[in-house]
Amino acid sequence: MTLVDWIGAWPGAVLLQRSGTIYLFVNAAHIASIGLLIGGILPLDLRLAGLIRGVPLAVIAPFLARSAAIGLGLAIVTGLWLFSVKPREYLANTAFLWKMALLALALLNIAVQHRNRHFRLALDGGTVHPSVRLVAGCSAILWLSVLVAGRWVGFL
Ligand code: HEM
């Protein structure tokens, strides 16, 4: 049995393969998680990029970053669960592969932002360095691209 066969046969996958109703709820949970993720990361990125002004970063950043992180964690768990329903089909779906590549880039981008010492200074209420603005702009574009690629999967 290959890894792909094993993924498609684990009890969680079989549950969704047999019940359209449970599939619907897991799908809805995936969408709610994405809402939490995008609803947190986008305003934070736009504030860091300078497109939204006048709101103190020291006040909003901890809350937005935490809700985005919770949304990301839940999106990954529910996404992997949905993937397990028909892994072979998804691995042959160009949009799904794009989505995973964009997701990897978006995660890498988070790591780059967190390693920048100017990022911590900005969150503490200091001036926002151009490098932080640039990475925040890339973050907004990448997460929106993951969103569009996710929607695209069902059309192929
Ligand atoms: C490891 C992470 C993830 C995996 C494995 C995953 C997997 C999946 C799968 C298998 C589907 C169902 C596609 C279909 O058959 O139509 C789906 C739907 C979707 N995903 Fe993800 N996903 C992940 C994370 C994300 C993230 C982070 C986002 C957004 C930023 C996202 C956005 C979407 C969207 C918009 C849909 C379409 C929902 C719908 O219209 O029903 N996914 N995902």
UniProtKB/TrEMBL annotation:
UniProt key word Zinc: no
Domain of life per record: Bacteria
Pfam families reported for this sequence: DUF6644
Presence of the UniProt keyword Transmembrane helix in the record: yes
Membrane-spanning parts: 20-42, 63-83, 95-112, 132-153
Keywords for the protein's UniProt record, in alphabetical order: Membrane, Transmembrane, Transmembrane helix
Ranges where the DUF6644 domain occurs: 20-155
Name this protein carries in UniProt: DUF6644 domain-containing protein
Organism: Reyranella soli
